[in-house]
Specification:
single chain; 271 residues; alpha/beta; Rossmann fold; six-stranded mixed beta sheet; three-stranded antiparallel beta sheet; 24% strand; binds adenosine-5'-triphosphate; ATP-binding; ABC_transporter_ATP-bind; ATP hydrolysis activity
């Protein structure tokens, strides 16, 4: 509610992530690869922004720039008003990868605790945070299990819990559910939306799936390859409250249609 008021008067909020004419060219032995070119985008607090586009259009690179894992070669980007490097040092975000990436020799609790140990949280604070994030992803009771004792979907939820453990306001998610079957993915999408509502995080989410992008997002960024550009930003008219069967509504299908058209138009760059 407060967020909406702030957004209406448009004075108190500055974008959480702001890219201006940003480019990134990789120098390779085969010549330069323009992974991103002249990309401008503002992500506001509490937004759920999905990035969709064909393979190689720069979605992961964009996310990695936000996380200070790559440096742009042109233009500017800020995260929470500062450089990605400063934001990383201030632990502004959690990052969830496509593979859960849990250490097999550590329990679920041990995996979630690892970044907290590195950051020097006290033992009691670690325990309290592990308990809280396990509840958030509905894995209470699994703290002492090992990753191999959990299904793929549960492992991915554990990796989301790990990203949430130090309570960053921003969650960067790179195709976190891409390797899961559709039913599990539906369930995790539903849970992620609930988690987003409860925590009011700002989420940047990479996906290949049109229904997933439309179901989850407040805004959908359609990208096109060679060079990687933003071809369209679609504001979702869907309410924030979204039961899964919203996907059968005409409103949902209309947004999905717009995304598909956007992707098709972007493909013209290929020719
Ligand atoms: N470290 C790197 N060195 C050289 N080229 C790279 C590097 N990382 C990415 N690229 C290239 O940059 C382009 C964008 O890659 P990126 O992984 O961001 O695309 P993507 O849209 O996330 O693709 P996918 O959907 O397949 O994950 C691709 O052509 C890729 O090969």
């Amino acid at each position: 509610m407060i967020r909406d008021v702030q957004r209406q008067d448009n004075v108190t909020t500055s974008p959480v992530i702001s890219a201006k004419n940003m480019s990134l060219t990789f120098q390779t032995n085969d010549g330069p690869i323009h992974a991103l070119q002249d990309v401008s985008l503002d992500i506001e607090k509490g937004d759920f922004v999905s990035f969709i586009g064909p393979s190689g259009c720069g979605k992961t690179t964009f996310l990695r720039v936000m996380a200070d894992l790559e440096q742009p070669t042109g233009g500017e980007i800020t995260v929470n008003g500062v450089s990605p490097e400063e934001a990383r040092k201030a632990r502004a975000y959690g990052y969830v990868f496509q593979a859960a990436g849990l250490y097999p020799w550590r329990t679920i609790g041990g995996n979630i605790r690892l970044p907290l140990e590195i950051m020097g949280f006290s033992r009691s604070e670690q325990a309290e945070r592990v308990k809280r994030v396990l509840e958030l992803v509905e894995l209470d009771g699994f703290e002492k299990k090992f990753p191999w004792q959990l299904s793929g979907g549960m492992q991915q939820r554990a990796s989301i819990a790990r990203a949430l453990a130090f309570d960053a306001d921003i969650l960067l998610m790179d195709e976190p559910f891409g390797a899961l079957d559709e039913i599990v993915r539906d369930h995790l999408n539903e849970q992620l939306l609930k988690l987003w509502k409860r925590t009011e995080k700002t989420i940047a989410f990479v996906t290949h799936s049109i229904p997933e992008a439309v179901y989850l997002s407040t805004r959908i960024v359609v990208m096109s390859p060679r060079p990687g550009r933003i071809s369209e930003v679609i504001e979702s008219p869907l309410p924030r409250e979204r039961p899964l069967d919203i996907r059968d509504t005409q409103e949902f299908l209309d947004v999905a249609h717009r995304v598909r058209e956007g992707l098709r138009a972007g493909h013209a760059y290929d020719e």
